[in-house]
Amino acid sequence: MPEMAMGWLLAQPGITSxxxxxxxxxxxxxNARAADIRLDSxxxxxxxxxxxxxxxxxxxxxxxxxxxxxxxxx
Length: 74
What we know:
The protein is mostly helical. Helices cover about 50% and strands about 0% of the residues.
């Protein structure tokens, strides 16, 4: 699942890199494998379709702790 999530991020227009970490060398190796994940357009469309209802609820700012002037969304 982490590889798919990072693969999805890398497939988004305008995103050229991601910052990841891990609690163990194994997790870091697993995360690094995300660079090899290539999600086809059908999979990307399916992920977008399945997550659309949640995106509607959350709105443009997915950080519930920051709002107003502190929001990352401008």
